[in-house]
Queue: 3 jobs
Job 1
Amino acid sequence: MRARRISQFEPLLIALVGLPARGKSQLAHRLARHLNWNGESTKVFDCSEYRRRHMALYGTHDIFRADNLQGSAVRRRSAREAVTDAILWLKEGNSVAIFDGTNITREQRQELNGYCLDSMGFRILFIECVCEDQELLEKNIIEILHYSADYKAMSEEEAVDDLRKKLEHYMRQYEPIDGTVEEISFVRVENMGETVTAHKVYGQKESGILGYLSGMRTSPQVLYFTRHGESEFNAIGRIGGNSSLSARGQSYARVLAEHLSAVASRDLRVWTSELLRTKQTAAHIPAPKRAIRALNELDAGICEGMTYEEMQEQYPQEFAWRDQDKLRYRYPWGESYIDIMTRLRPVLSALEDEDNILVVGHQAVLRCMLGYFLDLKLDELPYMNVPLHTVVKLTARGYKYEVEMTKLPVECVDTHRKQPKNCSISRTTADALVTVPSHYDTLPSNLWQNPSETQL
Ligand SMILES: *[C@@H]1O[C@H](CO)[C@@H](O)[C@H](O)[C@H]1NC(C)=O
Ligand SMILES: *[C@@H]1O[C@H](CO)[C@@H](O)[C@H](O)[C@H]1NC(C)=O
Ligand SMILES: CC(=O)N[C@H]1CO[C@H](CO)[C@@H](O)[C@@H]1O
């Protein structure tokens, strides 16, 4: 079979294959999140969303029967529209489109493969999701029943019955991919990542995807995040450095340990950065700890250890440039948000496979990590509010994460500086400093007293 060689730089269509409840949508969205983070503009085209647009409300499983003509017409039309939009997305210059349909028959796959390669000159990769593990399957089914828009208006019993029948209809039509007969590039993912096999997979994007899928395990259940307790530098408005916790920060470390022993599971593990303040924050938590360099705070280069007032005085132009584009601005001899996103990639991939981890991190690093899990737009990341003395809990719900923030009762300074209105390099000092949060100028002696007696 002649393999048409299509350039590595051509866009890629990923088509999912498999029965319902095999974790296709979850895989699609996680993969999209991963690819977007790695600079490949990626979008998921979900057939069932197109189908729902055609039917005011999901009727019943009946439309999935092969012999239901009207139903299969709607399904065909929805799939066609999703493919058309996916192709359009790629033509607009984006790099990956993920087509989340079922494409269960050999003929459908062949047609799509030919269309993509021959008519469009795009790359195409099929990903087949198989799940033989009954326990996983049941978990997926429960998740669909709870979170799918199709079943909002049905009772639990009706929904279970409906989904079972829908599965039967599909099962009757399903032809698993057979590598000896079908000349397509595909990856088979069994039991949500337990086994991954590849067939005729070439290209860098595809290899990266294969690597990601091989590292993927079932979704994490619960992850916790917190910034370190208030540090001596936080209290006096200095950025960066490697200072110790203030007395209030030390109180937070104790309160945090109590809080976690009440709410977290016993097999909790803790990841900190290599800086003193995160290690001190984790000190009282009775759990295994690991210090990870990639979790260190954004390196402010020549501005390490300065207050914003000093930056404005010594480097007004740098300060203004940073305000103009905080995401991309790189401190001289230091880092930008984009830089830390890059160094966080392996940590994020590792974290996706974990459960019951507490990350004790820093403001900029946690903005990036939370932004990743919550699918924030990149430009929003640098201004996300991640306050001190607050525990952020993420719980996986399908492919999305539910977020819960708990402020623990220990006072602290606010370190969140909003973008000022005037970012011009000719702005006045007052305009540059207008959003700087209030802080002490020196460590006041009362910070060292019993924190409960201290008032800000
Ligand atoms: C921070 O300080 C601690 C203790 O003084 C030291 O062990 C660690 O290497 C320092 N880290 C950095 C990155 O400077
Ligand atoms: C910013 O400040 C400068 C100097 O005061 C002024 O000329 C300019 O118009 C201001 N720009 C905005 C957008 O307010
Ligand atoms: C159900 C489904 O997703 N089927 C689609 C698979 O791909 C072919 C080729 O484009 C479509 O025509 C099918 O509708």
Job 2
Amino acid sequence: MPRPITATIDAGALAHNLEIARARAPHSKVFAVIKANAYGHGLMRAATAMSGADGFAVLEFDAAVRLREAGCRQRILLLEGFFDATEARAGAAGKIATVVHTAEQFDLLKVLPAATRLDVLLKINSGMNRLGFSPDAVRAAYTALQDIPAVGKITLMTHFADADDERGVDWQMETFERAVNGIAAPRCLANSAATLRHPATHFDWIRPGIMLYGSSPFAETPAAELGLRPAMTLASQIIAVRELRPGDTVGYGGTYRAERTMRIGVVACGYADGYPRHAPSGTPVRVGDRLSATVGRVSMDMLCVDITAMPEAGIATPVVLWGEGNPVDDVARAAGTVSYELMCALAPRVPVIEKIN
Ligand SMILES: *Cc1c(COP(=O)(O)O)cnc(C)c1O
């Protein structure tokens, strides 16, 4: 029997979560965001499971090319645009739509053959202050894009910084509306949080990411309450059991000290598998069909769980680090991070099992 750790990717959950996004924005087309290897779920696997999407958004040029070469017929969008002329030429040939967020990127489009008809998303900085044209530069950028022969359809785009919290989207929508005032073009604005909470942002295209993977964009709302199903389950087993006496410590640095007699299980999963090293003692772990918690520091290949109250637990008892029965959002919260980081960090050494149902 090999080392027992696995990541199960549930294709049915991906398809289901895509339908939840569609149901929330029934009049919009969907760019399923599958950047970063589909948030750790596998680019081609996710694209296949979500083949009902109208398009796919990625960041990595080679991912866009791989999708096209694999026969993907949907729209493909590059979220940071082309980085050089080679990408622009190959992208145009592969009909890969691109974000344009700086005037410098115009030059890459100007040298493309006039017959190209490349779809472009004009990115507007409405307050996130990351990528995009300043509101007062949008009209000139739009006109300049229209004048480039290779440019086909132009879609207006912005990205929300606070769609998941109390600050919301209104302040950015106001800036966006002022910036694009009078420009009649399709719009692509909403991430997962805006898809779920702010219908006024839906327009022509939405760009959900995290919700497709079964994680909630909202700190206070569990994914299950939104009807989402976990797409990734990181599971392993207990490979050794220790009895602790009061005063015994666990793991590197002895950060956990037993105050009473305890039983702990050593689990075959560590930070080299993608489990966050900074997860403190008390991070939720499902052991068998009950929830328990980690004890001590996470090491490279192992972590420990408290099984004092679980006499039935022992060697080979299954453990869910996150996923089915142990929401990734709960683990992320305990570890002081977000589900995005946990899922993206799934290590290549973890064997992936594809669940198709
Ligand atoms: C990653 C990303 C998204 C998806 O965001 P989620 O919070 O995962 O829904 C949408 N738009 C852009 C520009 C992104 O970079």
Job 3
Amino acid sequence: MGASARVRLHGHLDHPAELTVEDLRALPAHRLEVSFDCLAEGEQRHGYEGPALWDVLRAAGPRIDFTGRKQRLRFLLSVSGADGHRAVVSWAEIDPDFAGCRILLATSMDGAPLDADGPQLVVPDDRCGARYVSGVTAVWLGPLAEPAEVR
Ligand SMILES: Nc1nc2c(c(=O)[nH]1)N[C@H]1C(S)=C(S)[C@@H](COP(=O)(O)O)O[C@H]1N2
Ligand SMILES: [Mo]
């Protein structure tokens, strides 16, 4: 890993960007103490600090029609880690008009900065730790296409 990992924000955005962890610190930071269950390691407890994924995306200008409330419901985020681990978050999960979950892109874990490794997705409402994608390299925003009809 280099001295400063970068996160690529891409997809349906007016301002796609490549952000360092330091860039993420320009947004309002939240602190969360969380616990989650790992299938392999059992219960884990960590303290995270970083911006809300919602604020990161809003700053990148999502190409979503916000005039009504229905148009945004087909959008999702794909969050990728450096090792290929990947998880989907639906737009409605982070949108305050819907679930409004306080999902973060953490810039530090247990007080240790994540500049070299890249930020970590923090999903405090998840019981399981598998969506806590670490070493995030990319966040893609886009609509889910109409699922193919089952024949
Ligand atoms: N990039 C990446 N992130 C990942 C994983 C992974 O394999 N790759 N495993 C997940 C799983 S299964 C768990 S339980 C948590 C464990 O986080 P911790 O090791 O910081 O406690 O990380 C998650 N984040
Ligand atoms: Mo896990």
